[in-house]
Amino acid sequence: MTATARETVLRRVRDALALSDHPEVEVPRAYRTGRSLPDEERLALFTDRLVDYRARVHTGPSDRTAALIAEVLQEHGAQRVGVPTGLDPAWLTAFDGEVLTDSPDIPAPALDALDGVVTSSAVSCAETGTIFLDGGAADQGRRALTLVPDLHVCVVDLSSVEAGVPEAVARLRPTRPLTLISGPSATSDIELERVEGVHGPRTLEVVIRTDA
Question: Is a pLDDT exceeding 80 seen at residue 194?
Answer without folding.
Answer: no
